[in-house]
Amino acid sequence: MFATVAGNPTRAETEKISALWESSLFNANIQLKRYVIEDDRILIQIDDGSDSIQIRDFLLEQENCLDVTVDSKTYDGKGKKLLDKNKPLTKEEAKEKKKQEAEAKAAKEAKKKAKAKKEKIEL
């Protein structure tokens, strides 16, 4: 199993973050060995394969986990979602977002007018 740390961490930061992950999993009675193989990537050795799903799910929920690879299948972590959220929009995405915001504003105004009209009728 491999995990990638989100952002652009140094080897020391990756060591520190993966040590926190390891201790959290150890507290949940899950044994593993971790090896920092690149500045942002770790190799996780598991003695009991039945723990792999639990480990994967735990790592994917960590905000500083970009992705986890198990058996050549890569899963996006919370860190990837946060990076995507902060990524600048393309022109098309910005245009679509602006259109959606305008539609939402128009719907809100229509609802407000309908409510005012209903209150006026009730008086």
TrEMBL record:
In this chain, composition skew of type Basic and acidic residues spans 90-109
Q: Which family does it belong to?
A: Belongs to the MESD family.
One Pfam match: Mesd
Keyword vocabulary terms for this entry? Chaperone, Endoplasmic reticulum, Signal, Wnt signaling pathway
Q: Which domain of life is it from?
A: Eukaryota
| Keyword Signal annotated | yes
Record PANTHER family: LRP CHAPERONE MESD, MESODERM DEVELOPMENT CANDIDATE 2
Segments for region (Disordered): 90-123
Q: Name a single GO biological process.
A: protein folding
Q: Where is the composition biased (Basic residues)?
A: 110-123
* Primary location recorded for the protein, binned into one broad class: endoplasmic reticulum
Cellular component GO terms held in the UniProt record: endoplasmic reticulum
Location in or out of the cell: Endoplasmic reticulum
Q: Know the name of this protein?
A: MESDC2
Under the heading InterPro entries, the entry gives: MESD
Record's keyword annotation contains Cytoplasm: no
- The record lists the organism as Bugula neritina
